[in-house]
């Protein structure tokens, strides 16, 4: 074939080499023009009300306080610090929420496959109810109808003298630090490492000799012995249990879970757990039946089968969807804005209404969430790699 | 011979009776609740918890709850501030849907039949509620008659399938036209659309408009052209990485800013835009999954037939890809339907927003539980209907079995 004549005879808009480039150029031009149009509009709008795009406002004094804070914050601090407090609050809710939701989700998921009809049915009802109602409605129910409907503080509901519930929130016993807490922590960490090493050695011996070497017993006793040593060194308990009591119009000691935080956390955990339960159930069902039958044939008991045969295989199927549930939980914690709990979005909205810096505030919020999502999925991907099947 | 055999059989039957522990009520109880001591403990613990929860719930529902707040605000919760004089339009829409449902029920039976039965049941329950006005009852009666009558018409085996499908697709513009009026009827601004009507509308708009966008983004993400691919990836990952509420805030606060002064769109439309942009990103990922599941041979075969890229996609690849991910898409739609409640945070009066307004009214002090439980139950019913439909479709398509 004559290459030259064919390439000259094809008009350029039908040339297979030109079309893709042309298309992309057109697409890029449209995107850029649209972007420029939007941003010039936004900038013009801002100029009209006498505002310039910039992040200098972060250094200004925030004229509001944050009720629940991990680090010190007062209304004299800057907007920038307010953001950091908000981020820490988001991390706090997300971290506690993920742990609790995972535990509850696994329990409910396994319960759905129980041989006990009642357990199975209750678990199924739980999943159906919590999965099929909006999270925001659940948050409102916990917030308005439960936490805010508790009696006033003087008439707090008192459970065993340990827990108090009032419309200021729930108070639970909490652990306080003592001067020797640090020594205890070090002893505990060394104990963990030591017990791990001991456990490995014992397991290895057991495999080599074929005799029972009680790896679990030796590992746990090495931790315990280190903690006993720590006790003799410090002659003090590691943490001080602080039991709450009512003192006038407030609580003394313990840890107060505010209504906003409490409602958000309970709702997030209950809601996410119902999704995790279904993922766990699916993962367990996906483990081939033969595996369970083989384990039974070897004479293993059913809790042992679940722990050593089924779950390790199911976890491979469970982790990817579990990751997206964790990400959802982190993103859903932004609904705190509806119950006046000051996490990232809540703080952002307050700052936005005070300064009017919508573009800046929202872009900070978006950036933080994007980096948190990336970080979580990175962690879970590493974990995922560990749990993957290794084949040849 | 025969007699002997019978005799032997009878002998066997009488002497070696089947173990009766696995049948009958007692057998069932033993097998399912008390098979070993762990199960006995579990049963006792769960039975007492269930008993407490059920007892307290029933006591609350029938004796302690103040349902007056729902009956007094029923219209508000369902249609919001939609003018009373124009309510007939909403009823017409509902009747049209009933007619379509009835016809589909008659023709296809199956899943749509079950759903229609549930809807009819809901109409009947609604009509028998004590506080409902006479006018509402008449309309509900019309709807019940419409759904049953058209079902009988459909069962006659009329060749209406195409018309019904077209009807369902035309429903959306008809709804918008009727609700808004567009100069033919009195104009009713979107700011007056509220309650459950608004919840449904936002969900429907998000679903309808995000679909083409989602398909384009999914194709874009798999495109060989780097600029288009990177744009799609950036869009999808950006939207999926941030909470819906930030997107709603962007739509509420920044959309007017971005669009400049000439264009003014109201709150409801802004929320709809936000939802559409949000849904499209998630939908794109679902559709991408479907596209990835199509075997290479299908592409090659389409190419061998000489189809160009557009025809290949629209007639060969996309129909198969979409069919494969219908359950996932229905799941997404359930999520979107629930998420519409978030517009209450940006100040819209969807059913949850109305609920929030009601509990702040001093006249209905202390009725938070009633209001929110009512809203939760409405969502529960609709989400369950949708997930039921999705499971049926999944079964009918044999997804995961082939």
TrEMBL record, chain A:
<dbReference type="GO" id="GO:0006865">
    <property type="term" value="P:amino acid transport"/>
</dbReference>
<feature type="transmembrane region" description="Helical">
    <location>
        <begin position="253"/>
        <end position="273"/>
    </location>
</feature>
<keyword id="KW-0813">Transport</keyword>
<keyword id="KW-1003">Cell membrane</keyword>
<dbReference type="InterPro" id="IPR043429">
    <property type="entry name" value="ArtM/GltK/GlnP/TcyL/YhdX-like"/>
</dbReference>
<feature type="transmembrane region" description="Helical">
    <location>
        <begin position="21"/>
        <end position="44"/>
    </location>
</feature>
<keyword id="KW-0472">Membrane</keyword>
<dbReference type="InterPro" id="IPR010065">
    <property type="entry name" value="AA_ABC_transptr_permease_3TM"/>
</dbReference>
<feature type="transmembrane region" description="Helical">
    <location>
        <begin position="93"/>
        <end position="114"/>
    </location>
</feature>
<protein>
    <submittedName>
        <fullName>ABC transporter permease subunit</fullName>
    </submittedName>
</protein>
<dbReference type="GO" id="GO:0022857">
    <property type="term" value="F:transmembrane transporter activity"/>
</dbReference>
<feature type="domain" description="ABC transmembrane type-1">
    <location>
        <begin position="87"/>
        <end position="380"/>
    </location>
</feature>
<feature type="transmembrane region" description="Helical">
    <location>
        <begin position="182"/>
        <end position="202"/>
    </location>
</feature>
<keyword id="KW-0812">Transmembrane</keyword>
<dbReference type="GO" id="GO:0043190">
    <property type="term" value="C:ATP-binding cassette (ABC) transporter complex"/>
</dbReference>
<comment type="similarity">
    <text>Belongs to the binding-protein-dependent transport system permease family. HisMQ subfamily.</text>
</comment>
<feature type="transmembrane region" description="Helical">
    <location>
        <begin position="135"/>
        <end position="153"/>
    </location>
</feature>
<keyword id="KW-0029">Amino-acid transport</keyword>
<keyword id="KW-1133">Transmembrane helix</keyword>
<dbReference type="InterPro" id="IPR035906">
    <property type="entry name" value="MetI-like_sf"/>
</dbReference>
<dbReference type="Pfam" id="PF00528">
    <property type="entry name" value="BPD_transp_1"/>
</dbReference>
<feature type="transmembrane region" description="Helical">
    <location>
        <begin position="214"/>
        <end position="233"/>
    </location>
</feature>
Automatic annotation (TrEMBL), chain B:
<feature type="transmembrane region" description="Helical">
    <location>
        <begin position="315"/>
        <end position="336"/>
    </location>
</feature>
<comment type="similarity">
    <text>Belongs to the binding-protein-dependent transport system permease family.</text>
</comment>
<keyword id="KW-1003">Cell membrane</keyword>
<feature type="transmembrane region" description="Helical">
    <location>
        <begin position="138"/>
        <end position="154"/>
    </location>
</feature>
<feature type="transmembrane region" description="Helical">
    <location>
        <begin position="34"/>
        <end position="54"/>
    </location>
</feature>
<keyword id="KW-0472">Membrane</keyword>
<feature type="transmembrane region" description="Helical">
    <location>
        <begin position="88"/>
        <end position="108"/>
    </location>
</feature>
<dbReference type="GO" id="GO:0022857">
    <property type="term" value="F:transmembrane transporter activity"/>
</dbReference>
<keyword id="KW-0812">Transmembrane</keyword>
<dbReference type="InterPro" id="IPR010065">
    <property type="entry name" value="AA_ABC_transptr_permease_3TM"/>
</dbReference>
<dbReference type="InterPro" id="IPR043429">
    <property type="entry name" value="ArtM/GltK/GlnP/TcyL/YhdX-like"/>
</dbReference>
<keyword id="KW-1133">Transmembrane helix</keyword>
<dbReference type="InterPro" id="IPR000515">
    <property type="entry name" value="MetI-like"/>
</dbReference>
<feature type="transmembrane region" description="Helical">
    <location>
        <begin position="197"/>
        <end position="219"/>
    </location>
</feature>
<dbReference type="GO" id="GO:0043190">
    <property type="term" value="C:ATP-binding cassette (ABC) transporter complex"/>
</dbReference>
<feature type="transmembrane region" description="Helical">
    <location>
        <begin position="371"/>
        <end position="389"/>
    </location>
</feature>
<feature type="domain" description="ABC transmembrane type-1">
    <location>
        <begin position="196"/>
        <end position="390"/>
    </location>
</feature>
<keyword id="KW-0813">Transport</keyword>
<feature type="transmembrane region" description="Helical">
    <location>
        <begin position="231"/>
        <end position="255"/>
    </location>
</feature>
<feature type="transmembrane region" description="Helical">
    <location>
        <begin position="163"/>
        <end position="185"/>
    </location>
</feature>
<protein>
    <submittedName>
        <fullName>Amino acid ABC transporter permease</fullName>
    </submittedName>
</protein>
<dbReference type="InterPro" id="IPR035906">
    <property type="entry name" value="MetI-like_sf"/>
</dbReference>
């Amino acid at each position: 074939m004559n290459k030259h004549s064919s390439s000259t005879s094809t008009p350029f808009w039908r040339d297979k080499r030109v079309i893709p480039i042309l298309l992309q150029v057109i697409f890029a031009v449209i995107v850029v023009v649209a972007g420029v149009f939007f941003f010039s509009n936004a900038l013009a709008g801002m100029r009209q009300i006498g505002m310039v795009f910039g992040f200098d406002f972060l250094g200004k004094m925030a004229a509001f306080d944050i009720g629940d804070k991990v680090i010190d914050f007062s209304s004299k601090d800057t907007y920038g610090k307010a953001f950091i407090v908000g981020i820490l609050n988001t991390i706090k809710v997300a971290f506690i929420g993920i742990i609790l939701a995972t535990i509850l989700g696994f329990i409910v998921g396994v319960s759905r496959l129980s041989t006990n009809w009642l357990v199975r049915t209750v678990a199924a009802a739980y999943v159906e109810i919590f999965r099929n109602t909006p999270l925001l409605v659940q948050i409102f129910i916990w917030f308005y109808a439960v936490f805010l409907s508790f009696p006033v503080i003087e008439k707090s509901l008192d459970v065993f003298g340990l827990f108090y519930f009032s419309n200021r929130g729930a108070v639970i016993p909490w652990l306080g630090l003592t001067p020797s807490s640090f020594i205890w922590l070090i002893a505990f960490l060394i104990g963990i490492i030591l017990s791990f090493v001991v456990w490995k050695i014992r397991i290895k011996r057991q495999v080599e000799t074929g005799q029972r070497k009680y790896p679990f017993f030796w590992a746990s006793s090495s931790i315990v012995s280190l903690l006993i040593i720590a006790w003799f060194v410090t002659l003090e308990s590691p943490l001080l249990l602080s039991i709450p009591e009512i003192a006038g119009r407030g609580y003394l000691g313990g840890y107060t879970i505010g209504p906003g935080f409490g409602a958000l956390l309970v709702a997030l955990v209950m809601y996410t757990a119902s999704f995790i339960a279904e993922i766990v159930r699916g993962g367990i069902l996906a483990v081939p039946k033969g595996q369970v039958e083989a384990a039974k044939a070897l004479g293993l008991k059913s809790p042992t089968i679940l722990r050593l045969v089924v779950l390790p295989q199911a976890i491979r199927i469970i982790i990817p969807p579990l990751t997206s549930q964790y990400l959802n939980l982190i993103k859903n914690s932004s609904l705190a804005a509806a119950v006046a709990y000051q996490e990232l979005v809540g703080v952002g909205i307050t700052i936005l209404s005070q300064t009017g810096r919508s573009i800046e505030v929202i872009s900070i919020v978006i950036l933080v969430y994007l980096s948190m999502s990336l970080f979580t999925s990175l962690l879970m991907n590493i974990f995922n790699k560990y749990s993957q099947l290794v084949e040849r | 011979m025969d007699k002997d055999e019978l005799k032997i059989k009878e002998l066997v039957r009488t002497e070696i009776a089947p173990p009766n522990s696995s049948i009958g009520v007692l057998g069932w109880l033993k097998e399912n609740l008390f098979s070993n001591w762990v199960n006995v403990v579990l049963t006792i613990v769960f039975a007492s918890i269930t008993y407490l929860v059920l007892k307290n719930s029933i006591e609350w529902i029938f004796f302690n709850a103040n349902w007056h707040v729902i009956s007094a605000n029923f219209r508000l919760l369902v249609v919001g501030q939609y003018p009373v004089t124009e309510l007939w339009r909403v009823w017409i829409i509902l009747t049209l849907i009933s007619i379509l449902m009835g016809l589909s029920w008659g023709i296809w039976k199956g899943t749509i039949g079950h759903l229609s039965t549930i809807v009819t049941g809901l109409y009947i329950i609604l009509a028998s509620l004590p506080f409902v006005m006479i006018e509402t009852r008449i309309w509900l009666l019309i709807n019940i008659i419409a759904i049953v009558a058209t079902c009988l018409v459909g069962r006659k085996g009329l060749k209406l399938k195409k018309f019904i499908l077209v009807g369902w697709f035309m429903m959306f513009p008809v709804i918008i036209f009727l609700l808004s009026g567009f100069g033919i009827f009195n104009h009713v601004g979107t700011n007056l659309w509220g309650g459950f009507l608004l919840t449904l509308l936002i969900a429907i708009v998000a679903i309808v408009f995000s679909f083409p966008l989602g398909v384009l983004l999914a194709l874009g993400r798999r495109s060989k052209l780097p600029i288009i691919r990177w744009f799609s990836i950036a869009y999808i990952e950006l939207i999926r990485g941030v909470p819906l509420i930030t997107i709603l805030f962007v739509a509420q606060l920044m959309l007017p800013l971005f669009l400049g002064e000439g264009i003014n769109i109201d709150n409801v439309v802004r929320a709809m835009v936000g939802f559409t942009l949000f849904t499209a990103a998630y939908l794109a990922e679902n559709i991408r999954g479907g596209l990835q599941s199509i075997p290479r041979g299908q592409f090659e075969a389409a190419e061998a037939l000489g189809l160009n890229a557009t025809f290949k996609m629209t007639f060969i690849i996309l129909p198969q890809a979409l069919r494969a991910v219908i359950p996932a898409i229905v799941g997404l739609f359930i999520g979107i339907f629930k998420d519409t409640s978030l517009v209450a945070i940006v100040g819209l009066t969807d059913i949850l927003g109305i609920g929030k307004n009601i509990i702040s009214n001093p006249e209905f002090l202390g009725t938070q539980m009633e209001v929110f439980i009512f809203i939760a139950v409405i969502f529960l019913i609709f989400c369950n209907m949708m997930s039921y439909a999705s499971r049926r479709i999944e079964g009918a398509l044999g997804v995961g079995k082939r």
